[in-house]
Design a protein that fits this description.
heterotetramer, A: TIM Barrel, 4-stranded antiparallel β-sheet, B: alpha/beta, Elongation Factor Tu (Ef-tu), domain 3, Rossmann fold, 7-stranded antiparallel β-sheet, 7-stranded mixed β-sheet, binds flavin-adenine dinucleotide, binds flavin mononucleotide, binds FE2/S2 (inorganic) cluster
């Protein structure tokens, strides 16, 4: 079965890629399998300067999920361009840079620098784990539109905007970034959560709150993608709890054109490859004959699934 | 580093809430240093893997021994795995004690509680190199103690317990002043407060410490397990740059 | 250990009660244990007229949780007063009526009728599963304040307002209903979610979306309670994934004064009683000497936990 | 109704993906009618309980027999439970076939696929009352068929399979016109489309149907399992008002 597909900036040989922050810049996973097997790679967030991130503990386990508050630790955009992208570029796969920042200027600076070296940007306006800036961009449609527009302007490649699920109205956010010129959407980032340890009487995560990811949040991701697909005419990279080939199909039926896999890489470093290998058989089991047929397949106005959504 | 379903060859309790688990598989062949760890997926009741040090291993038999203490859900679930079952293991992870580079006459090993296990294979390798070993072991109580006989076969051992039910009453660090004069280097593993006390008391000696932190990936990709470092890079990842560090490399909180 | 406590309208012999919609009006659970053991009982939602609710399937399983879209099926406020409350009143426990509606008038009507027969109201402005009205009241602070004020006016007993987690800013909602005169808060209701069946290519739930509950959402509940406790001076009934005595302690540490248990009743109909029985031992294990010491104990400004928060 | 950890006495496969599970415990003593069900918590990998009909039971031995087919995660996990283990069971749930009130001469039982099991103990009880039984059983294929011999001991049996590998090729309902003339009443369990076809074809006869719906609580408290009814109340809960209803009581979608 043909799994390949074109999305803005991306020639995906299959609809599966690792999610930002869960795969660093690929090196660690390259010892487990050939990264050329991946549809694409979404790199860890890049900021203007290097960031150390939050205190530890930075992760906590939850029911079928986890909390993290890494705090966007990264070596800074210049070091990523010099030291990380050259390695990833040796593989036959698309590279997406996750762009973060505290100010519009920082977002624009990172985008301008890194976009020459990758196939697309994922604009991260939804990181719940940094105090300054990030949160408002991801929850206020006007700010989201503004930062999107400026990054799109600065970028040489298509911009996918990564939406936060911590909002009352996800469709408003999606429409705002569509207006801002986004080429696609990436959803969802983590739900803000907390765990408290009865032994210490304190939040487990040093940052107090963290982002909830994993199977636990999948129903929220599916709901939001299903909602947005009906209202916004942009391709969606779906994520949030993908652990199996069936999950990939569920995301595509909801309206995603591709999926990213995050936390599940920690449970099984081979998960992306294993799901890619299983996908054709799973699609056949459910009687699908092409990837296009699956995308948006859960919507009544099925006809839409056929049209090119970019 | 591999992901492998290893076979459980032995599994029994050796002290209060403390278990000995012997696993067989190809991962053993990849072990390069004592002090490395494996990252275990206990089952569907837990989400994240659990890091456990390799206490001992046998290349020929492809076996490794883990000693673990029940601390919560994951280790609790682990106790229910039976001999013959297989276990989802990722490893060997990280960098251990650089035993090849050590050529001292006499070294000090300091282990606290469930930090004792990774020192065992280290001790065996040091002894095989002809290095004299003195070991300080600290436990809560006599019921929690383990590996005493094993360490005694390798050198002199001083034990302390918090409640005085075995050895001297007090902390493992209480012994240090008495033994430090004769040793050239130290190796330690245990709770962070102990590591800090040890490295301060032995600030004038070269030493290696093995650290713990909550992990996500266990392979260096998620940056969950960082510890600040003294150099320009500013951090180390415990899962892949460690868990063993030179004492002066990292900043102990 | 003394587990009892006074909250507005409620003399709780312990901090555990079944959550609305998961316990009907108690009859089914009365065959498993004596309902007098409960701190209180929160009844199923009451509306002005009887409602049939949504089509089936109405539930779906998710990772450590479930979706439901019952659609507020209930016999109507009059039938509840005549046929259900008399049975519950035979037990020595506080009764809380969950008040729902599609219009402010309906909320007021139900509150006015039912408040004479119960100890407190839980104003449900957060049901995600009914098309009309409900959702906006739960996501718009001005509407929430308004409906709260009118219901408080109409009610003879204290009103706890049940907040929806499907909002960008939970503190704004809590402050709005505090202004409206709420005597307490109840949080959280379910997160809106969806599951799609790859076999049928359709959402499993007939209503398409449903409310996500269970252990999966606990980190979101804990985070929101922790946030609101710092900003709003009202007692909180916490809920969302309570399954064990340790969970109860985690909710209280975050800032809840009591907890409600929902979906876990379906896994084990004896869960409320079992947790009540275990609670004293669990509190001792962690070195607590009173319930008051636990409430809000995860906050730095620990002193606040001592003051009376009603 | 009780919650009990029942003991697994037997567990084996009896047809393709279909298992026979014999459980022992006090819940058996509370069974009042054939066609009631139990609500099973399979394990920590599933959240909701799974409803399964009681196919047969023995008061003396306190045993009940369940027959189930693997349809998804819960039933899949159930297959891994071994004899001797205990299982978290809630039951007996709901109302079954009111066998006490039946005093016909000749009745028709119609079962489709995994809807066949609850009819078995019903058939035994009807037979014991001296009532003549004709049974129509429908399966996908010969490999899926079960309980044939058992029903044959109790009366005449007509079988159909979708692919014709056993009995007549076609649907179980294809037999109805041939046998309906002689029967006074019918009892049926199977997929909703079959129940609807049966009740339409036999609209002039009194009949009982056993229904299925996704359940939350399984005890009547959550209103997940409702089916519209023809009366003023407007609905029935399958888990406690049913799963067995008079055919004219409920509205089949
Ligand atoms: C490199 C390394 C080597 C270790 N070697 C051993 C060993 O040989 N024997 C042994 O008994 N223990 C060892 N530990 C500690 C062991 O990992 C924890 O006791 C275990 O993860 C607790 O899991 P739990 O589910 O029982 O507890 P829970 O508290 O339920 O665990 C919840 C989460 O916190 C994490 N966590 C809790 N305590 C620790 C800790 N001390 N360190 C890291 N993560 C933690 C868990 O991994 C899990 O993600 C080691 C830890 C590290 C980092
Ligand atoms: C009163 C009653 C009696 C039943 N008796 C039997 C029996 O004797 N033998 C047998 O094999 N099956 C019986 N079933 C069907 C059985 O409950 C389902 O096949 C089973 O729940 C599927 O669970 P799963 O985890 O394998 O499937 P999944 O699809 O993974 O289940 C997901 C969820 O959907 C629910 N679900 C899926 N299919 C059904 C269904 N047909 N009815 C109700 N809930 C469903 C599950 O309970 C679970 O909550 C009965 C159902 C009911 C309502
Ligand atoms: C440890 C960790 C770090 C993450 N870092 C980032 C990040 O840097 N940028 C980003 O956009 N998302 C980040 N995320 C969010 C993931 O990319 C993803 O959106 C989310 O985890 C949901 O997917 P999952 O359930 O498959 O993990 C991170 C998630 C985790 C668990
Ligand atoms: C089947 C079901 C029905 C519910 N009905 C109501 C309701 O009528 N009114 C209400 O306020 N909340 C209702 N809820 C929400 C619960 O009261 C509770 O807020 C939520 O389920 C989170 O708690 P839990 O995780 O313990 O289930 C319902 C939940 C479930 C699962
Ligand atoms: S645990 Fe992921 S980097 Fe160390
Ligand atoms: S399953 Fe809850 S009422 Fe029937």
């Amino acid at each position: 079965m043909k799994l390949s597909q074109s999305l803005p900036g991306l020639q995906l040989k299959n609809p599966v890629m690792p999610a930002s922050g869960c795969f660093a810049f690929g090196k660690e996973f390259a010892q487990f399998y050939d990264l050329s097997e991946l549809g694409a790679v979404i790199m860890k967030a890049a900021t203007g300067e290097k960031r150390f991130g939050n205190g530890t503990p930075r992760v906590a386990e939850t029911a079928r999920g986890m909390l993290n508050a890494i705090g966007l630790q990264n070596p800074g955009v210049d070091a990523i361009i010099e030291e990380e992208i050259p390695f990833l570029s040796t593989f036959d796969t698309s590279i997406i840079a996750n762009v973060a920042g505290s100010t519009v200027e920082e977002y624009v600076e990172v985008a301008a620098k890194i976009s020459a070296h990758v196939h697309a940007l994922e604009l991260n306006i939804s990181c719940p784990n940094v105090k300054e800036g990030g949160v408002q961009f991801g929850t206020d449609p006007m700010l989201a539109e503004e930062v999107t527009a400026q990054v799109v302007e600065a970028s040489e490649v298509p911009v996918y905007v990564k939406l936060s699920p911590n909002v009352t109205n996800i469709v408003d956010m999606a429409k705002a970034v569509e207006k801002g010129g986004a080429a696609g959407l990436s959803m969802i980032n983590t739900l803000t959560g907390m765990r408290i340890d009865p032994k210490t009487r304190k939040p487990i995560i040093a940052n107090q709150t963290g982002g909830l990811s994993g199977a636990a949040i999948k129903p929220v991701a599916i709901r939001m993608i299903h909602q947005v697909y009906q209202e916004v005419n942009l391709p969606i990279i779906g994520m949030g709890g993908v652990e199996t080939a069936d999950d990939v199909i569920e995301f595509l039926l909801a309206g995603a054109s591709a999926v990213a896999i995050g936390s599940a890489n920690f449970k099984n470093p081979l998960i992306c490859k294993e799901i890619i290998d299983e996908l054709p058989r799973a699609l056949e089991t459910y009687g699908f004959t092409s990837i296009e047929e699956v995308i948006g397949g859960a919507h009544d106005e099925k006809a839409r699934a056929g049209i090119f959504r970019a | 580093m591999k992901r492998e379903w290893m076979t459980i060859l032995e599994h029994q309790t050796i002290a209060r809430d403390t278990y000995r688990l012997v696993l067989q598989g190809d991962i053993v062949r990849d072990i390069t240093e004592p002090g490395q760890f494996v990252h275990i997926q206990v089952g569907s009741g837990t989400y994240l893997r659990r890091p456990v040090s390799i206490s001992d291993f046998d290349f020929e038999k492809k076996t490794m021994t883990l000693l673990y203490k029940v601390m919560g859900k994951g280790t609790e679930d682990l106790t229910r795995k039976s001999v013959g079952e297989s276990l989802d293991v990722l490893g060997p992870g990280g960098r251990g004690f650089p035993v090849d580079q050590v050529d001292d006459d006499h070294v000090l090993l300091i282990g606290g509680g469930i930090g004792v296990p990774p020192l065992y294979n280290l001790a065996k390798q040091l002894k095989a190199k002809g290095i004299q070993i003195t070991t300080l072991l600290g436990f809560q109580s006599a019921d929690d103690a383990f590996l005493l006989d094993e360490f005694e076969e390798l050198g002199e051992v001083f034990v302390s317990t918090n409640d005085g039910t075995l050895g001297r009453k007090g902390f493992v660090t209480d012994w240090i002043s008495e033994v430090k004069a004769t040793v050239d280097r130290y190796f330690t593993c245990g709770p962070t407060v102990m590591l800090k006390a040890v490295s301060e008391q032995l600030a004038d000696l070269p030493g290696y410490i093995s650290m713990e932190e909550r992990m996500g990936c266990g392979i260096g990709a998620c940056f969950a397990c960082v510890v600040p470092s003294h150099d320009e890079k500013g951090y180390r990842r415990i899962c892949c740059d460690g868990p063993v560090f030179e004492a002066k490399e990292v900043v102990l909180a």
